[in-house]
Design brief:
The complex is a heterodimer of chains A (about 250) and B (about 55).
Chain A: H1 2-12, H2 16-48, H3 62-89, H4 92-124, H5 132-153, H6 157-171, H7 174-184, H8 207-236, H9 241-250
Chain B: H1 8-47
Classes of the chains: A mainly alpha (about 250), B mainly alpha (about 55).
């Protein structure tokens, strides 16, 4: 019974007017949740947590760098799942969501690379090193930009989305490379200090702001994805009746 | 009350970049929505014969 309800709900999301309405209602709540979590996280990161005994206050960059890096990779995984659904079931709203994830993922990757570079300067003595973690993250940025470019290159948006979905799945190989790069190769970038299942080497007092910021970035990604998808849907369906009706209603 | 950090320029620049890029993720869809709405309402007015390019009309 519940499974059937989920299935019907999932199929209803394929309807553009329903999808538009869901995005319109859910996105502001996600932004609000992100703002609350970010406010907690930033307050704790900047005012509560003590300086690190080795890196002093520069370690505070971690609270924007790590959540952005994790979201850049998690966003790609979300896009990959959407791409599979789009390729198998040909659901247009899913295609749109897969495509709209790319600029947001690129934004988080840019935050990760920029803040990592700024953190690296005082700690490593260099802005950049061609080590495996940094380079694979840069490749992720190029993959995101490639997906955006490929989608934009097609006049037929559905064809463009299908080709870009294949590129998303090809680029998926880079995600485990990023994750395991610090284990597979000798890198300037440190190894993992935060473990989900084992004991983290970071002190427990430094963890709460990190989790607040991780939740905040997840909600930001979701909200931005729904906002962008809603716009893209209206742009694609601008000649269709349901968009006209909405415009007439708001005129 | 802004805390005084060691390595302050590095810390604040990083948080500034984060804030600017996140702000753009909020602002960009709003701007695009406004542009789309204006375009669609212009098209609608044109289709209904109510369009006027006279700014004083």
């Amino acid at each position: 019974m519940i499974w059937k309800k989920i299935k019907v709900g999932f199929h209803k999301l394929g309807s553009p007017p329903v999808f538009y309405r869901v995005c319109q209602v859910v996105a502001p709540w996600l932004w609000a949740g992100a703002a609350v979590c970010a406010a907690f996280g930033l307050y704790k990161a900047l005012f509560v947590v003590p300086p690190d005994y080795q890196q002093s206050d520069s370690f505070r960059i971690l609270y924007v760098h790590v959540p952005a890096a994790w979201q850049a990779m998690a966003g790609y995984l979300v896009m990959s799942i959407l791409a599979i659904i789009a390729l198998v079931w040909r659901i247009r709203t899913t295609e749109i969501m897969a495509m709209m994830g790319a600029p947001i993922g690129a934004a988080f990757t840019t935050i990760c690379l920029a803040t990592g570079s700024i953190w690296g300067r005082p700690m490593w003595g260099t802005w950049w090193a061609w080590d495996a973690r940094l380079t694979s993250m840069l490749v992720l940025l190029f993959v995101y930009l490639g997906i955006m470019g490929l989608y934009a290159a097609f006049e037929d948006k559905r064809k463009g989305a299908r080709v870009a979905c294949i590129l998303i799945l090809v680029g998926l190989v880079n995600i485990p490379i990023i994750h395991f790069s610090v284990e597979w190769w000798t890198t300037l970038h440190q190894g993992s200090t935060i473990s989900f299942f084992g004991e983290s080497s970071m002190d427990a007092s430094m963890m709460p702001p990190l989790w607040w910021m991780v939740i905040a970035t997840k909600l930001m990604f979701g909200a931005a994805l729904l906002d962008r998808s809603r716009n893209e849907l209206v742009e694609q369906d601008r000649r269709k009746g349901w968009v006209r009706q909405k415009m007439e209603a708001t005129a | 009350m802004i805390p005084e950090f060691e390595y302050a320029p590095y810390v604040w620049t990083s948080y500034g970049i984060f804030a600017m890029i996140v702000a753009w993720q909020i602002v960009q869809p709003i701007l695009k929505r406004k542009r789309l709405r204006a375009e669609l309402q212009e098209e609608l007015a044109l289709a209904q014969g109510e369009y006027s390019d006279d700014p004083n009309a």
